[in-house]
Design brief:
With 635 residues, the protein is of the alpha+beta class. It is built from 21 helices and 21 strands. Strands 16-12-13-14-18-10-9-20 form an eight-stranded antiparallel β-sheet, with no helix packed on it.
Length: 635
């Protein structure tokens, strides 16, 4: 594991443990969990972790905002949780509810894996445009220009291939099939110029002329390089076909016949129906936005710039990115999205810098400065969640600055030619392919004004009152910590934590404690180990969570895989929310049945808020009786 192993353990524990995780992915700044039950996650404890900026519930995901270190934290979280990176857990992942949430989940899930590479390629394109502007003359025909241009253009020209791979993983399709679908869409002889090279042989209403046929069906001309929607729809369709094909094709023939059926159905449908229909709809959509821009470029840019940071909060900005890419693909430039939102990150960063200058708490100042640097590079989530949004006034100031910048940059007739770098690395996005840098200077001026507005409004209107509140919170929490004795909830033999047959418990990721191999009977009693409240009684009855009156959190996990019994063999004597005394009967368990049916009956007894204590000691060895001292927390 890496340097963030301890943080990963704490996050896994506080999201409800490995058994509560369906899947986990990450984007530039966030861990994106799919949890079976979000109510089991402890938002406050996760937000209190030093490396965590905040927690968000959005688009069916439980999002833990980390910042620029998120790829490294993600790797350790996967290692701790026993989840292979970029894949789900063994259980079926539950899709987010609602059409809108599903759409957001699909877009973010497909774009997140390739976003970093897209930004890197955009920076290379921007660098090449800058060199073309500075050197002029023959640079545009040089080998250096050609190599850099190819390096920067590759992912955008063959975007369906990259999206074919990432969307295939999202839709649980064989990734190689997804790539072949993307390659098919980019195949040279299927593109617009090749199809139109001959004489038109017919005309279809709305769609216009067609030049070739497939099995007698008109094959409409289309250019799908650099497109987004066709490949997403085709991989979604292919995933359904693959699932059906696996049921119909004998297992010994599936290796090549399943891809055969998927491809021979999907790609012809794509070229004959899906591609042309999507092209028509995207053309109409692009025309609509162009009409909006023509009606009022300033208002369009101001609205996008003002609301952009608010959209980022909920991850809804993903819905607009394909629209900007659509304009870049069809027009060669964008004047709506990528121009409108560009100044927002600068306004946000300036507002945070104003906060930094007025902050009195040294710890917060130390956290704010890296967020300022991150914001200058175009990544503003640490700033938003950690500082400006909780403070409200600075966030509103940044929205005002972003709106003014969006309106101004459009008023100056600026065009974005590249979906490239963010923040200070994004200014070269506005240099035209012919080397005209006027757009870059327009962007610089607009962003400078955005920064002035965000800074001045925050500096004048915001007052720092956080230190006193933080001090009160620390004092309040420190009063709750006391030593606590935890009794054994049952008769049995004590098992060292590391000897438990479950990696999550054995690793200590869920907290310190021990296990008990219980006495086997048809009616084994389980008693309360502390005086407190039954905070969790799982619907499957296999686990009980108690919070002692002093704040100690105890988890009794009855068996290791007994969740599959769905309540069979458990007879609860309490319900969630009950207050119990140490020694009260909680449950009767049929360990004899469980053991006979092959279930592992080792029972972990875990202090889930271990990090609130200096240590958790195991006080018993060998055979232990119910009510005997088992564990002790040291405050």
């Amino acid at each position: 594991m890496g340097k963030y192993e301890q943080l990963a353990k704490e996050i896994v524990k506080e999201v409800g443990g490995t058994e509560n995780i369906n899947s986990v992915t990450h984007c530039i700044t966030r861990l994106r969990f799919r949890l079976k039950d979000e109510s089991k996650a402890n938002d406050k404890k996760i937000e209190a972790m030093d490396e965590v900026v905040t927690v968000m519930h959005s688009a069916g995901q439980y999002q833990v905002v980390i910042g620029n270190k998120v790829p490294y934290v993600y790797e350790d979280v996967c290692a701790v949780a026993g989840i292979k990176a970029d894949t789900s857990s063994e259980e079926e992942e539950e899709a987010p509810k609602g059409v809108f949430n599903k759409l957001m989940d699909i877009i973010s899930g497909c774009f997140s894996p390739i976003l970093g590479v897209m930004c890197a390629a955009g920076i290379i394109k921007g660098l090449n445009a800058l060199l073309s502007f500075l050197l002029g003359g023959s640079y545009g025909t040089s080998g250096t220009y050609m190599v850099l241009n190819a390096t920067g253009d590759a992912i955008f020209t063959f975007l369906p291939v990259a999206l074919g791979y990432s969307s295939a993983k999202k839709f649980k399709l064989n990734p190689m099939i997804g790539m072949v679908i993307g390659l098919g869409l980019c195949y040279p002889n299927i593109q617009l110029s090749a199809l139109e090279s001959g004489k038109a042989i017919g005309t279809l209403p709305v769609f216009g002329k067609y030049y070739k046929t497939f099995a007698g069906i008109p094959l409409l001309a289309g250019n799908y390089t650099s497109t987004v929607i066709p490949v997403l729809l085709l991989t979604a369709l292919a995933a359904k076909i693959e699932k059906a094909a696996k049921k119909l094709v004998p297992e010994m023939l599936q290796n090549f016949f399943v891809p055969f059926f998927v491809l021979i159905i999907t790609l012809p449908l794509g070229f004959l129906i899906i591609g042309p229909v999507v092209t028509l709809l995207t053309n109409l959509l692009s025309s609509g936005f162009s009409a909006l821009y023509k009606a009022s470029p300033v208002a369009t840019g101001a609205v996008v710039g003002f609301f952009w940071q608010a959209l980022v909060i909920f991850g809804l900005h993903w819905a607009l990115v394909p629209l900007g890419l659509l304009n870049l693909t069809q027009l060669g430039y964008d004047t709506i999205l990528f121009t409108g939102f560009f100044g927002a990150s600068f306004a946000q960063t300036a507002a945070l810098f104003a906060m930094y200058l007025k902050m009195k708490d040294k710890k917060r100042k130390n956290l704010a400065l890296p967020a300022v640097i991150s914001g200058l590079c175009g990544v503003t989530e640490p700033s938003i969640y950690g500082f400006t949004l909780p403070a409200k006034t600075p966030f509103i100031a940044s929205m005002v600055g972003g709106g003014v910048a969006g309106g101004l940059i459009n008023a100056l007739g600026t065009k974005c030619y590249i979906y490239g770098g963010l923040g200070i690395f994004g200014f070269t996005n506005y240099i035209s392919p012919k080397g005209d840098a006027s757009g870059m200077f327009n962007a610089i001026v607009s962003c400078a004004i955005a920064m002035v507005i965000g800074f001045v409004l925050t500096f004048i209107l915001w007052k720092d009152d956080a230190p006193a509140k933080q001090e009160e919170k620390v004092q309040e929490e420190s009063k709750q910590l006391t030593d606590q004795v935890i009794a054994s909830p049952m008769n049995g033999e004590v098992i060292a934590l590391e000897d438990l047959k479950d990696a999550a418990f054995a690793s200590g990721a869920l907290g310190k404690g021990c296990g008990i191999s219980p006495e086997i009977s048809n009616d084994t009693p389980v008693y309360a180990p502390v005086t407190g409240t039954v905070t969790t009684l799982f619907p499957t009855l296999h686990a009980i969570g108690l919070t002692a009156d002093d704040g100690t959190e105890v988890l009794i996990h009855i068996g290791l895989n007994t969740v599959q019994l769905e309540g069979k063999g458990f007879t609860p004597q309490i319900k969630q929310g009950d207050h119990v005394n140490a020694g009260d009967l909680l449950m009767k368990v049929d360990f004899a049945m469980m053991s006979k049916e092959g279930y592992e009956i080792q029972t972990p007894i875990i202090i889930t808020n271990t990090n609130d204590y200096k240590d958790v000691l195991v006080e018993a060895k060998g055979q232990v009786k119910a009510h005997d001292v088992l564990l002790e927390t040291i405050a």
